[in-house]
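Structure ticket #2291
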Amino acid sequence: MSRPRTYRTEAIVLRQHPLGEADLLLTLFTPQEGKLRAVAKGVRRLTSKLAGHLEPLTRVELSLSVGQGLDVVSQAQMVEGFASVKGDLARTSRALYLAELVDGFAVERSGNPALYGLLLEALALLGQEVEAGPLLRSFEVRLLDLSGFRPELQVCVECRQPPEEGLQRYTPDGGGLLCGECAPPRARVMSLSSKALATLRLLDSTSLEQASRLHLAPELVEELRVLLSATIRYWLEREVRSAAFLETLQARSL
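Resolution: structure written out below.
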């Protein structure tokens, strides 16, 4: 069955880039089509009525026409602009970090409704007074799970035995938890406190909203950030560019 020449979809705009003199190249994340790239023609002209509907971190209803290479946006209507996120630098930076993660892990033309819903929920929570550190760490854990890269947090990835308390470690490229004795060849091994392991397990079993209400010690949040950043970097095979700016903002707020 051939694909229809036009179609409608809801989407979150992950990012945009100028294309030619007046067009925009959009990276979109949709519930059923997954990640897709599309062109919004003439949208950078002053007379365009679509520009305000296609900003990054905007939930939008789109009509698209199938093109030979990239699909073309023919209509766009904002559904949710997340104004409380975009009106604050720290919140915007966190949201752009989440958008970059989704951009990195989402598969083009492969729907992932659960991940789409996770990003929507996170953007809504970021606009509220929440505990940002636990929320971001929870998102990272859930993102890895929904992308097929869930780390093992119950038993050692090598011997498959539960490690003794205080004798556990973590390997981002080996798949998760290690006991005190196993050492996979050439795998990076990181220290893992008992509190960090318990918190990772908690984040793995709670909702984003529940995580956003957790009050965690700053040093614990930092330990989790380092562990999960290493895991994300391994699977993406690159650094997350927006993470560095986010860390700079965090350091200035201390």
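Closing remark: The chain has a mean pLDDT of 92.
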